From TrEMBL:
Gene: queG
Enzyme Commission code: 1.17.99.6
Pfam families attached to this UniProt entry: Fer4_16, QueG_DUF1730
One Gene Ontology CC term in the entry: cytoplasm
Binding, tRNA: 221
Main location per the UniProt record: cytoplasm
Binding sites annotated in the UniProt record for [4Fe-4S] cluster 1: 186, 189, 192, 246
Pathway: tRNA modification; tRNA-queuosine biosynthesis
Protein name: Epoxyqueuosine reductase
Quaternary context: Monomer.
Amino acid sequence: MSLKEKYSQLIKTEAKRLGFLSCGISKAQFLEEEAPRLEKWLKDNRHGEMRYMENHFDKRLDPTKLVEGSKSVISLLLNYYNPEKQNDESAPKISQYAYGIDYHFVIKDKLKALLQFIQEEIGQISGRAFVDSAPVLDKAWAAKSGLGWIGKHSNLLTQQVGSFYFIAELIVDLELDYDSPTTDHCGTCTACIDACPTEAIIQPYVVDGSKCISYLTIELKDNIPTTFKGQMDNWMFGCDVCQDVCPWNRFSKPHQEPLFDPHPDLLDMTKQDWEEITEETFKKVFKKSAVKRTKFSGLKRNINFLKQ
């Protein structure tokens, strides 16, 4: 076994021990296939008001411009699947990934621990940790590293565990043994395209971000356009429809991360509780949650939009 293989094995074993679902490694280099796709997506204005998507175009496509001297991109998946649903079926819905503590905190701690392990076991390695908060094309790197394929709904998919997981990276200046991409297993299935309430999946593998319910309820700071009246499928924060209908998610298994468990009050809140929510309750239920991103005023806006 070469040193590169040995180090890669060591990293993958530790990633598993830290609770990651899987770990794949690819060479840090320019993402040639993604460049024209990203350019067209931006040119067609599919990012709506997410203007930050236009920034750092070159860094998004080339990790060596993001982390000097980088050689490898270590991609990691962390499961968040929770089969529990809100008890009141008529209550406005919240995306599963936001049930518990904000994933940024949870994953950053695990990534720091992994980087520290690499430095202790292998030596003077420098690198940076990323959790969807920097110009890194997470899904492209995960697919390149063999962790899954990008499905027709543009989420990463795996045959074994579906798509309910977060993607994160460590970009390091260490040469490792690289994995190969897997094949696409969407076949002729169009379940996600057919089920999308706002028809945001405009063609297989292309999502118009400005029509996506997650965008409308989280990213959009203005009022939700009235054209989406009656199309929101009762989602007040995020949306899981394209994942819920995907046949591969039959294989999702409940996560093992206590920090992702919902706040005790969250699943019990009724439709009326949500419609009458106060800032005090918002702060209590979503104390360290990703829902804070939309702020109390944003969540109220979303709930009121569903009521109209």
